[in-house]
Structures are given as C-alpha cells and as structure tokens.
Amino acid sequence: MLKKKYKILGDSFKQYIPLSKNTFAETKTNKITEKNIDELIKSFEKSRIEIFIYKGHKEDEEREAIGKVVSLEKDNEAIGLYAVIEWFDDSITEKKSFYPSIEMVGKKSYEDENFIYWENCEIKAVAAVEYPASRNVDLLCASAIISNEENINGEYMQKLKNVLEKLISEEKEIQKEARDEFVYLFRNDEEIQNIIIDMIVKKLKEDNSKDKSSNAYKQNLNNLDNGNKELNLSAITYGDWCNEYAESQNAVRCSSKSESSTFIKARKLFKAGLSKEEIMSIVRNDLVPIGVGGGEKINLSALSEENKYSEIAKLFK
Length: 317
Fold this sequence. Notes:
Layout lengths: L2 E7 L2 E2 L2 E5 L2 E4 L2 E3 L2 H13 L5 E4 L11 E8 L6 E7 L11 E13 L3 E15 L10 H6 L8 H14 L4 H17 L4 H18 L4 H12 L8 H14 L4 E2 L1 H16 L4 H8 L5 E2 L14 H11 L2
Helix pairs in contact: 3-4, 5-8, 7-8, 8-9
C-alpha cells in the first residue's frame, strides 16, 4: 500500500455551516496554536482506534475509508501538522484536486473579533475535500499520483523519459521540440505540474552521473544544488515579469494575490530550465491584471473643468 507524508493542518482553518443544499455560512477563522498541535499529536498517540481518511464530510451516511493516518508530527518551521497517510484506494488520484480537512473535537476556549480559540483538541478523522479549509496544506491527489514510480502508468513514464532525453540534447532544434512538449504537459495536466518538476530535477541529477560529457549541464545541476542565484528566480524579478505581462494586457500591474499564488510554480519552472516566455505562458491564465495602462499622458491643466472629469473617468474604465 502507498504511504506518503502530507501537511494536513496549518495555523488556522475555516468552517462552513450548511444553511440549505447549496448555501453555506462561513464562520470566523479558527486559530490553531502550538499547544493545539501538541494536543492533537498526544490524542493520536493515546487513541485506541485508528484515524481514517474519508472522501468528504458526510455526517448523515456511513463513509468508506480510503486510507488511514499512520503517524503525526508537528511542522518545525511554522505552526502546522503533518501526517503520514497510508492509502487503501488510489481512486482519489482520479480527481482534479483534493485537500485534507481535519475532523477534530475540542473545547471552545474563547473568541475575539477575528478568531475562535480552542483547547483539549483531539483528532477524529481526516476528510479529502475539494476546497482547503486550512492554509498551506498539501494537495492530496497531486502528491499521491506520483509518489512511487511503481504506481505510475508505464506509457506516461516512457513519454516523460523521452522528453527528458531531448531536453539534455546539445542540438538546439531537439531541445526546442522537447521544451514545447514539456510546456504541453504542464498546460494539459494541471494535477501533476508540481510533481513533474520535482521528478525532472531528480531525473536530470541521475542522468548527470551517467553522462558527464556536457560541462554546461553539470554546472547547472551543481548550481541547483548549491542554491546559485542564477537558478533561483527572485520575487522582484518575477514581479517585473508580471508587470510586463500586465502592460501587454493594457493594465497597470497584476494583483498581488495572483502574483504570490503563482510565484512558487514559476520558481520551480525556472529551476527546471524553462525560459521566461515559457514560464509566463504557463502561469498567465492565473494572473489577474488590474488597473488601466497605456495611452498618452493627459495634461489636465490644458482642459476645461468639464473635460477634466471626463478624461479622469476614462482612466478608470
């Protein structure tokens, strides 16, 4: 059976209370503390029953377990909880996206204007849901698809291998063809974009030990291992790229939220060797240009009072 480690809880989570079949009310944010994380781990270790993974929160019907939690551990870099999950059923990977949503019990400690705080927390189960209730949790289905090469479709692996072999070719035409194929994979298989990047980096390192004929290729891998700035896309540079894209759409800039949500993907693509143009062609659908750009500057002092307001209004259309 497939086992893999996932982050299943961040430093907060939201609850949604059903009002009718298609209408939900959103609660305040529930704040998770370091103490809560310790309580959850302790409750798991003391529990006499296994903690299972289910598809969705289905309170009114019996649920079939698709996996179980093998162990829990705290996030050492931030408030959060990791779980090693053993999958019974790989069918979860057939969905576009499933995130972990922890089911727990506890005593409401107090609440302020922004948050609800808890104590005596105990984990009861984990549900695989379409929208994450907690920030920065792992994508279950994408991580599960390619966590073990034995579970990967053989035809797909051969296709990916062929693309990798072309990518390290010294013939520019072959490299260009491989890049086009690689971009196609990213555009048409969103569920496994991040996993493919990780696999490519690993594969290139393995190939490097077998073929040392390309000095440039070896240097790139060494740079990647050493965290060389040339292979590390900075947020400032990426912001400039996003601004250029926004200007091409006759906008002022891209929204900060869309920039930050695509930055990690762009940085991984950059480390995988893709060019600026290829990266932007992949992430641009998730960027949100805002404001109005272009056009000539307007000298308002040369206009009548009535025309000033008219010209200003045009800037906000």
